[in-house]
Q: What sequence folds into this?
């Protein structure tokens, strides 16, 4: 649930800020009209926010339940949902006194320039990891994957057979050129959800509803995915859908499931890419003008990040490896430790005793999980 957490917290404070993916020309009346449009519905905002939250992590949940067991696994999902909602509520509340319009502004307000830079570094690492995971999932769906010496066929392999042009690297390169690059350069697809609301005070209820919806989807996916495939559940659940499910038209349903989720991942890709590009630009060029006003800087940063995620996806074999390192380190920092630390620092004296108790619990739990995860990662590499 933390893979798109940074996007929520980075963009939800942007009251009055309308930053498109590309500069808007003065005569672009359509774009200007879109930016002026307000009054998004409550349900529409919940749906949009939920689409950004439900990302690549959901495909590894059945494998997580296989390792932890059903009851502990479901309990951890519920706890994560509660802590995520608490973290976002803290960020919303503590942003108002300091007039912080982004997550990085809030860290700057609480901890100064060092805090802001630390957050930007974590966001860059986390979001690059997310983009790599997205690409690996799409590779698995279209070109297949190999786990423990067993090959799971992809959709293109099933339809066309094994050829060089159905291989992982070539397919991913084509998708990057044809789909990802146009998507991240399309100037009208990302606007702050809060800015679209007629009443921005609804944001708290929207976040709560979205987290509850996402937690339900996560539990159902993890539970039924594991029950369906049992001990044969793979780290990327979509790779399991190359076998006969024992129902009529099984092959058709398998392809629909895999291609539908791959399509969702392609559309979420630019949403995660957008704050990644902004944070990298802020880290490298803190004194420069707006990124959207410098086309050369915009293009170089965009192409560099795409190249990094493309190379990472080609050479990292499974999403499990990417999740182990990003989720076990910077993901937890962004989602839980930083918001709790801001609350404990309490630069404007608005934290309650309950806030501080919850923050201490959040930090202890996050640090413990980080230590265990890092130890597990290191141990697996040394085996």
A:
């Amino acid at each position: 649930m933390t893979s798109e957490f940074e996007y929520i917290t980075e963009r939800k404070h942007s009251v009055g800020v309308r930053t498109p993916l590309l500069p808007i020309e003065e005569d672009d009346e359509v774009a200007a009209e879109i930016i002026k449009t307000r009054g998004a519905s409550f349900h529409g905002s919940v749906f949009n926010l939920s689409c950004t939250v439900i990302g690549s992590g959901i495909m590894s949940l059945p494998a997580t339940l296989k390792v932890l067991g059903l009851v502990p696994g479901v309990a951890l999902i519920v706890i994560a949902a509660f802590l995520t909602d608490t973290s976002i509520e803290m960020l919303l509340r503590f942003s108002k006194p300091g007039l912080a319009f982004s997550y990085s502004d809030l860290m700057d307000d609480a901890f100064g320039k060092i805090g802001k830079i630390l957050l930007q570094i974590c966001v860059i690492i986390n979001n690059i990891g997310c983009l790599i995971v997205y690409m690996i999932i799409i590779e698995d769906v279209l070109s297949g994957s190999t786990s423990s010496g067993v090959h799971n066929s992809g959709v293109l392999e099933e339809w066309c057979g094994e050829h060089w042009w159905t291989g992982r690297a070539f397919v991913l390169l084509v998708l990057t050129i044809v789909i990802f690059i146009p998507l991240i350069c399309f100037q009208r697809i990302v606007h702050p959800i809060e800015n679209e609301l007629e009443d921005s005070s609804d944001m708290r209820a929207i976040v709560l509803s979205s987290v509850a919806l996402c937690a339900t989807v996560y539990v159902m996916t993890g539970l039924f995915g594991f029950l369906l495939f049992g001990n044969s559940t793979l780290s990327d659940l979509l790779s399991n859908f190359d076998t006969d499910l024992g129902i009529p038209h099984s092959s058709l349903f398998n392809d629909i499931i895999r291609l539908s989720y791959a399509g969702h991942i392609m559309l979420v890709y630019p949403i995660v890419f957008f704050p990644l590009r902004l944070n990298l630009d802020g880290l490298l060029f803190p004194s420069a003008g707006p990124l959207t006003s410098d086309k050369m800087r915009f293009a170089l940063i965009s192409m560099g990040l795409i190249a990094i995620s493309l190379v990472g996806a080609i050479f990292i074999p499974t999403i499990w490896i990417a999740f182990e390192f990003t989720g076990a380190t910077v993901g937890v920092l962004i989602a839980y430790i930083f918001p709790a630390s801001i609350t404990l620092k309490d630069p404007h004296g608005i934290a309650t005793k309950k806030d501080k108790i919850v923050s201490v619990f959040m930090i202890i739990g996050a640090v413990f999980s980080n230590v265990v995860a890092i130890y597990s990662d290191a141990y697996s590499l040394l085996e």
Remarks:
- The first strand starts at residue 145 and ends at 147.
- The longest helix spans residues 103-143.
- DSSP finds 13 helices and two strands in the chain.
